[in-house]
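Handout, section B. The chain below has 402 residues.
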Amino acid sequence: MKLYHLPIFAAAMALATACGSNGNSKEDVALTKSGLNPENFVDTIDDVPVALYTLANENGMEVCVTNFGGRIVSIMVPDKDGNFQDVVLGFDNVQAYADREHNPSDFGAAIGRYANRIKDGKFSIGDTEYQLERNNVRNPNATGADDRFLHHLHGGFKGWQYKPYEVLEADSNHLVLVMNSPEGDGNFPGNVEAKVIYTLLPDNALDIRYEAVTDAATPLNMTNHSYFNLNGDPETDITNCTLELMAGNFTPVDSTFIPTGEIASVKDNAPFDFTLPKTIAQDINSDHQQIVYGGGYDHNWVLDYAGDDSAPAAIVTSPVTGITLTVYTNEPGIQVYSGNFLDGSAKGTKGGKTYNKRAGLCLETQHYPDSPNHPDFPSTILEPGQTYDSHCVYKFGIAEAE
């Protein structure tokens, strides 16, 4: 099913190198606006060349992406004083991303095949049951390596965040990545070809589109896993930011983060009510059982305007920088994760910053977690002959002065 051509890929790699160095020699490599050295992202992983790709617009906004994991490495946007701030967490070299043993992370990644969790790693299509890799939530009753975890998360032990995407197109504001995922990848059925298309728009919006086809029915649920910190300093946690969600309901979970199947009103669960803007800090330490389970927010909200990517799904504002982030999507849900499991242990972070608990906020546009096991949830099964189409826009701006 491979649709791309290696000569195009080679040309794209050459373009990326040229853009990264601004035409300078290898000994005199120019840094990106965010301070990244493109040389630190040039490598070959799983026999695929990887590099750093820099997108820019006329406003000076810059987005850096590596095709390893399709990861957004940095996003530079202007604050209320016109100073540019890097508003996502990440590492300053590709090997730090690849080091799953010491730096397990989803920072900035294009997640696949299935973002979020699938209960027990099991699902059925027709009369056939599939057992996926289980790589999330330690099993307290484990007797061996095969049952040390309970559930499947983000594609398994080596989801797409730990694999190189191949580059189909690359220019100054546009990047197309492709992942050819064979049958059995993470124990999923079907061969899948998936594309991630990054486009930096003139209005300071990063447009992300996901497309995929398959030759056998399979669950598919892609998303971006950037950790945003609009304060411009990840050592200032995100709880001071204001969050608004266009969602009157959410999907409660059990103690292992699996949806119960209920669609619950946020009005009946006050800590989850962001229908009017409020600080993330306001209820994040509530004794509400759902907050206790997650150690903060790690939940899927059911969007009021599901399928309408012209309507805002979420708005975040930093009181420090005045930077706003508005999320648009055609997905039915958005997972809000408040960085509860960050612990300061990540090595190779940009600027040597420490990423402590709640240093970043994830806004993952998606279908609901564990959808293959909930017939009442919107289906995530991609059939042969269908084209998967998921759209997300992260648009940055400045809050109006009161």
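Note. The two ends are 54 Å apart (CA to CA). Compare this with the example in section A.
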